[in-house]
Amino acid sequence: MERFVYRNPTELVFGRGSVDLLSEYLPRLGRKVLFVYGKGSIRKIGLYDRVLVAARTAGVELVEFPGIEPNPRVSTVRRAREEARRAGVEGILAVGGGSVIDAAKLIAVSHSYPGDPWEIVREPLRVTSALPLGVVLTHAATGSEMNANSVITNEETDEKLGWAHPLAYPLFSILDPHITRSAPRDQTVYGVVDMMAHVLEQYFHDARNTPIQDAWQVSLLKEILAAGRKVVENLDDLDARETLLLAGTLALNGTLSLGLRGDWGVHAIEHALSAVYDIPHGAGLSVVYPAWMRYVAPRKPERFRRLFLELFGTEDLEAGIRALEKAWRELGAPVRLWQLGIADEARFPYLAQKAVAKEGATTGRFAVLTAEDVEAIYRLAAMPLE
Amino acid sequence: MERFVYRNPTELVFGRGSVDLLSEYLPRLGRKVLFVYGKGSIRKIGLYDRVLVAARTAGVELVEFPGIEPNPRVSTVRRAREEARRAGVEGILAVGGGSVIDAAKLIAVSHSYPGDPWEIVREPLRVTSALPLGVVLTHAATGSEMNANSVITNEETDEKLGWAHPLAYPLFSILDPHITRSAPRDQTVYGVVDMMAHVLEQYFHDARNTPIQDAWQVSLLKEILAAGRKVVENLDDLDARETLLLAGTLALNGTLSLGLRGDWGVHAIEHALSAVYDIPHGAGLSVVYPAWMRYVAPRKPERFRRLFLELFGTEDLEAGIRALEKAWRELGAPVRLWQLGIADEARFPYLAQKAVAKEGATTGRFAVLTAEDVEAIYRLAAMPLE
């Protein structure tokens, strides 16, 4: 293990019916709170009304800021920050999935920052204070509800970058499996892929002596896949929804990377894609991961063999990759770029430059990849399916 | 899963050489700090001197309170609290194992409490404030370094009771495997048994739909046993020490009981023993657990079969219990009361009453046991070994 410091102060409020507790938690955010949400799906499931009722019960005034888009944009954060400042809110309530939470984190930490929010994305150490942030999660996927990470897109520069700061942990996050049951099929599947990808990014590491972390990573992957298979059979399967909801949080709350540093190259390669094409992050991941594996596994096979043996009963690299593709295809996720309508191979060099831009000239850690490597991975992701 | 709220604010500082960071962390406890430790083993390994140097570097004044005993006593806590009040300290530094930390927690939360500290042990909700508590852990076992639990003995009443309060979480805990390497063989083995017992107490639950928790519990048990076997081969095995150090923390920092409530009857049955006989907690656990299993497994076999299959490749109840006994005996732990010099069967009814006293008339949750049940378990723990 490598030396580490770990502290996760988020209060997790989990379980069937837990959204009823919102009125008890809301006052922790202040008397006037910016209520941030997405494109209105929370209205369809009645959650919007429940939030208003909770605020009335709690005596908390809400200032609404709807319209956070998937792959949330820094321009939206700018507008939200203006609204928060104008209204004089004391805290932020994010009701939605990872995109809404990620945007809310940047609103919270940039509230009293004098410069542009994008400066924080590029240099998170600029953060010195944050408004308190509460979350009601509607979708199991990103883990943003119990970590300090956020991913923001700059549509002017075609950049999609992750950033993190200790002040970006939510104060509380309410996770109710009843609510995630309303997530539609494709979004549910992309959530499953996303959380599996988070575990995989941590599984591919070079740290020594990590037997507990390795075992927990592999068993979490197994349980996510098992619950994912159940939920695509029956989107109303509350047990499977509940398992996925906890899994998404545990996949990225820091537990699985105690004492190790994961790869995260696949995320960079995917972010370059979804910054330009505005595809769902999970769909991009299920396309990029097999291609990344085909490129990396022959060069560094040991951890791949172990993973595939545990998950699919094979140590053969190509057989393992195909088994993962098969599992994701059976869930309904794409595994090639052309399934997402991306066929313009001439743009691969541009995308590859984007993927390696933040780190300098490479991305990834377990597999350190240059722009040329990333281009080769995009080409592998464009292959025909046999 | 059952509905739950989870928040663990302790900052974990983990890894080889991490004790060097003490001078950076000490000022968080204040300018004048009560330095609590045990019987002086920290002097032998040079840790005492390192603490003094760190305090000098940090400009923090230490007020020493040595002599915390294993199975720490409320009378000792009373004296420490007097000393803390007299000296006007602003925080507590605990350097030691679970006993030192548990005592320090009660000192911290009772500092401004007007009544006797034992009242808090009996009714933890009396706590309204606490001094900040920092920890340097010397021994992998109890998990007290990253939870809000404490166990205190009242020698006047032969009681040994656990209590917990959210204000009892350490502010920070420094875990350096180099330091745990000095733990002697028997203490090391009892630590291994203790952390396995913590996982088992959580494994034996009645909650539905807990596939992730179950998988993580079982794999943690496997990894603790594997590292335990290595460390008794070579007490200097730094990798095994490091694994056990993280395992002890993860075994009882709340992760494994998200959404479920464990049994904890074996702990109550053992606490009655070690309150009266002053035996090491881990040695008591390795004696009580097989007896508890022999009593409970035939009545409620399903989770036992699954456990034994995963750990020892058998679904036979008696074969599984014997395999666990064999594993613990090979580590060097006792599995019968007479191995601890306890042969007075006439005291079993008295002990059994102690075991069920706190909860009312029963102990345990997965297996609800009356005093008569507990007596029968003590008798099973007194059986000859074939």
UniProtKB/TrEMBL annotation, chains A, B:
InterPro entries: ADH_Fe/GldA (IPR001670), ADH_Fe_C (IPR056798), ADH_Fe_CS (IPR018211), BDH-like (IPR044731)
PROSITE patterns: ADH_IRON_1, ADH_IRON_2
Source organism superkingdom: Bacteria
Keyword Manganese: no
Gene3D superfamilies noted in UniProt: 3.40.50.1970, Dehydroquinate synthase-like - alpha domain
GO molecular function: alcohol dehydrogenase (NADP+) activity; butanol dehydrogenase (NAD+) activity; metal ion binding; methylglyoxal reductase (NADPH) (acetol producing) activity
Keywords: Oxidoreductase
Residue ranges of every copy of the Fe-containing alcohol dehydrogenase-like C-terminal domain listed in the record: 188-380
Coiled coil region boundaries: none
GO CC entries: cytosol
Domain Alcohol dehydrogenase iron-type/glycerol dehydrogenase GldA residue range list: 9-177
Protein's name according to its UniProt entry: Uncharacterized protein
Source organism of the structure: Brockia lithotrophica
